[in-house]
C-alpha cells in the first residue's frame, strides 16, 4: 500500500515508553509453558524515556528507516532484508505492505541500553500505521503483533514483556498463561494510584553502564541450558522470586524487594557470569552494601542496571553509583521516572 498520499496530508507521530524489569526470560514460551504450573510472571516498570516514531511521505515503491545510532537505510518495498540492523522495522512495514513511507525513530534512551528499545519502536511503528489507516488503537492487539513480528525475524526465541510495557505503561506483573488456542497474558498492576507511583520513583535508580549490550548471546545461553534440562530448577526459583518481588513492591516492603532482587541477580550470575560487565559488577556490589537490590535490565551483558530500596538507601546509592560511573565513557545515572501511559498518538 502506498502511504505517500496519506502522509502528505498529515504526518503521523506516535510514542511509547521503554522499561526496566525483573524475571525476564520467563516471558518466552520455551520457559513459561513447561513451568505453567508455577504461574510464571515478569515484573516491569515503564519509563518516561520514550521512543518516538514519525511516519512521513517518501518515494513510491520504497521504504526508508532512520534512527539515532544507526545508519539510515532505504530499500524497495519487497527487497528489505529482515536480518538488517533495522530489519524488525522493515518487517513491520512489510506487514502493512507499506511503501512511500519514511519511518523515523527517535529514542530518549541510550542506543542498545537493554531497556527494550527495539521492541518499543516496533510497537510505536505499528500504532502509527494503525492511526494512518484509521484503525482503533488496541494496545493488546498491537503488543501481540509486535511480538510475533519480532519472533518471526529474530532467529532466537523472543518474549513479549517489552512490548507490553510499551503498549500499556505503568508498573505491572505480567502472568504468562496458555489459553484455549494461543498464549495469553494477565496484567496485574502492582501500583495503580498516581500517588503510589510518584512515591515509588524515590525507591528506584537506573544507571547506564556505557557499554551497549547484545542480548542474543546471553539469551541463547539461557535457552539452551533450559532446553538441555540443566537450569530448570534455577528458573523455577526465579519464577518464585519474581512473584515474591512483585508482592513486596505492592506492599511497599522495599527491603524485602531488594533481597528478592539480589537473589535473582545472583542466580543469573551463577548461570552466566557475563550478564554483568565490570562496571555492572561494581554497581551490584555497592547496591548490596547500601542495603539495596540491583539487577541488569533485559538480558544484561552491558546496557543498564536498576536498583530498588528504601528511599534513603537509594539516595545514598545514587552518590556511590555516580562515583563509579564518572570515569566510564558515556556511563551515567539516567534522569527518568515511571511512565503511566503506554501508546500515545501525538497531534501534529
Number of strands: 12
Q: If you average the pLDDT, what whole number results? A: 95
- State the separation between the terminal residues, measured CA to CA: 23 Å
CATH architecture of the largest domain: 2-Layer Sandwich
Low-confidence stretches: none
Number of helices: 12
> Beta-sheet strand percentage?
15-25%
Spatial extent as radius of gyration? 20 Å
Shape: globular
Secondary structure category:
alpha+beta
Total number of distinct structural domains? 2
Q: What string, H for helix and E for strand, traces the elements in order?
A: HEHEEEHEHHHEEHEHHHHEEHEE
Helix content: 40-55%
By CATH, the topology of the largest domain is: Ribosomal Protein S5, domain 2
Oligomer designation: single chain
Largest sheet: 8 strands, mixed
> CATH first level of the largest domain: which class?
Alpha Beta
